[in-house]
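Pilot study result, target chain (263 residues):
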Amino acid sequence: MRWPLTQELVLTEGCPALTFEQWITLLASVTAFLTALATLLTIREMKRQRKSAYKPDLLLRPTSFRVSPNDLPNQRPVIVTTGTASQGRSRTSILLQLYNAGFGPAKYIEVNWQFDCADFVRHLAGLPGPAGITVDNHKKGFLNITFDGERPARIFHNLATQRSTSINILPPQAEESLVVPPAYTDLLAGYVLTLSRSLSNQLQPDALSLPQFLVTVRYKDLEGDQHVKTFNVVPGLVAIRSYTPAIVDTDSLADGFVKIHET
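Predicted structure:
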């Protein structure tokens, strides 16, 4: 016997019966749901791709530095410069390049430096021979460094002003020079000066290692979302030579490197 199309289709084992029209309606509802779900997933993926296309990605580049004698009066006896080129005999600094490897600009960039002066002072105290600098860090937030020797020089650092650096905007595929806090650089210069005067004595294996520090970079993308990156900065000395009065300011007293590890 042939059943008409409008007749109820009875399923086995007591399942409720559905008419042919009900089956069509159910199938259409499932199809509509799957279509809506696919559309939603497509929109989310397009939004994610659009966001990635304008997302900045800030990185710190590794670099090198050199420590050289300074023959200018009333200045530090040694200076630190980035790479092999001098930036002016009266200036001492290590430059790190902040590079935007993303496809969108970074804005409202805040760079925070986290370094421990007391750790560097302990590092200095562990060297043999006479110290090349005298460090007074008893006043909270301040650091007084005196370079000893034939041409003494005194530098007074306000650490509160050296803990952060701000940049308004960094376009994609562009870079900006960041100056390592001068307090750290002066401590490094004094460390090298002390080390170069005691090379005839027995040195510990870690004498060419330098205290590490952290750099935290906070920035926003075009949509205002906040991003945070932290880098572990690892400086060290490659080579060092004895400090003598015969050394001229074009000679390198020490050569060093700065490695960068993203944490």
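One observation from the pilot: Confidence is low (pLDDT under 50) at residues 5-12, 84-90. A full batch analysis is planned for the follow-on phase.
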